[in-house]
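hiii, so i know i said id send this last week but things got crazy w the move. better late than never?? heres the sequnce for the chain we talked about at the cafe, plus the structure i predicted for it. fair warning i was half asleep when i ran it
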Amino acid sequence: MTNFGVRSLRLVNPFDPAFREARSAVGAAKLLSGAKEYASVAVAVADCTLVVGTTAVRERDLQHTVRRLEYGARLIRKHLRLGRVALLFGSEKRGLSNSDLSHCHWLLRIPTDDENISMNLGQAVAVCLYELIRDSKTAKPDDKLKRANAAELERITTKLLEAMRSSGYLKRRPIADVEERVRRLVHRINLPADDTTAWLGILRQIVWKLGTTVR
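okay and structure toks below
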């Protein structure tokens, strides 16, 4: 991360003994000591307006757009001018869960040989970060339209789920992974930050009206 100028390391429920005993590479002690721990992916990416997950794909039935690294990196560089981006990596053993992936707008994959598609986590991070800075100037925020961050999208997701339950929609159409599906749906809207207040107001009014009707 320090090789490629990335300074913000966020960890979700790290294995404490390994994390506490970790030793940094030369020049990276400050980054490691400043790493922040979070209890969930939702909290870790709350201030990000774009969340990109990484995957080797394998045999998974993914519900997201999957982009090759070289193209995805260009999209990320462009978005960095608008807001904060989270690049999400899973463990080497299990990767990202479906719940983790539901917080992502889309996914990124490194093109590897079919005989061995899995990469060491540190190497995968280095390859991704190198591609992000290759042939690019430092991305600076500009005054273009700001997008809703993950925390705002999560509030809309929560309120939309509440409206679905209050209306009886989920009783007529039970969905096992409804929270993940609705979260993916909300992320695909690509909602401008200025519109979040209006959407939350609309959904709160619907929930309130459904509550008064039921009573």
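btw The chain has a mean pLDDT of 85. thought thatd interest u
miss u guys!!
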